[in-house]
Specification:
Pfam families: FAD_binding_3 (PF01494). The protein is of the alpha/beta class. The chain is built from 12 helices and 17 strands. It folds into 2 domains: 219 residues, 3-Layer(bba) Sandwich (FAD/NAD(P)-binding domain), CATH 3.50.50.60; 122 residues, 2-Layer Sandwich (D-Amino Acid Oxidase, Chain A, domain 2). The chain is globular, with a radius of gyration of 21 Å.
Amino acid sequence: MTTTNSVGNGNEYTRAGDGMPGNADRNTGAGDGAVRVLGGGARRSRGGPAEIAIVGGGLGGLTLARVLAVHGITATVYDQESGPGARSQGGMLDIHEESGQRALRAAGLLQEFQRIVLPGGDATIVRDRHGTLLHADDGGNGRPEVDRGQLRELLLDSLPPGSIRWGAKASAVRERSDGRREVVFADGSTVTADLVVGADGAWSKVRPLVSAATPDYLGVTFVEIDLVEADARHPAAAAVVGRGSLFALGDGKGLLAHRETDGSLHVYAALPVPVDWAGGVDFTDRVAVQDAVLAHFAGWSDDLRALVAEADGPLLPRPLYGLPAGHRWPRVPGVTLLGDAAHLMSPFAGEGANNAMLDGAELGEALAAHRGDVEVALAGYEGSMFPRSAEAAAGSAQGMTMCLASDAPAGLVAMFGEAA
């Protein structure tokens, strides 16, 4: 589903396919936290083997680690979670042919990825606030849907054992007197590296080394909702959503939903509210939250309101933030960013996870192509990433404006009509 890719902090997870490098312990033996050596003949520009640390184990950071491994270059990923199953990884992702799939091809995982695609998950329905069907298609647009957790697991299981240090929450990154970088973790431990890659999401601890930019609230908060065993327990809501994704839009707000691989419905209520709106709602009281959300959908179809009224489990607030479109920084030796750390954007074009993965692939390929000079590799990577991500961020912003316009879903229906 195109509207969920950037929600959360970018830590996403998947399942292994056949024939990938073994990792039976799911990289739990990350060792003592020492940064691994950039192998395969890679050298830092001043001579000697370069050391690399990837801060953040989301899709972008894991793609980078995998592509480096494909080229015989090792790196350690440092992730704040206690383990691969520490938390839910969110909903479905549509993986774009020109970006996410391109990255999986570079990682040697495209065939395994195709095994976890949800058949029919790329079908799309658009309705207005009354539930009137305005558009329906069966997908087939080169953007298959996959469970975010399964995709992350696929990447995790493709890495050599010991590639990940879990429970490593970065609190700061600082420059040493010898020009190298020191990553400081919340438990007081540190690691030193010649290259630090910030793949640590919206509130990156690496970003301040290269940029003073911080994310701004985009004026919209998602409330995340799940309806389990939808066909059996919530048949009316299941019928409204259909086989794949639903966009129900109107009055500057929306109900966005998709089918998941376990038969549940994952729903986002998109609300144009102040940044502190969630602080005024008791999210420990499910009924109170449902009432607060449903107040925004007064007069909407009862079948659409059921996506909120029939929620199973807690409802969770997800305020949307973004960096300025076109965010860039001057070349800073020994450090770079990827994914949300570099170009956090609106999720309304499905570009967040896809661009993060492509960042990881392109950075890995650049480092492999310029083993003798890391700085040449970083300059080449950033020179390509900056304009690509600026275009994606601008498109994402336009997508949010279109979906939450006063006349929505007219613009979205017209867009689908032009693409048909």
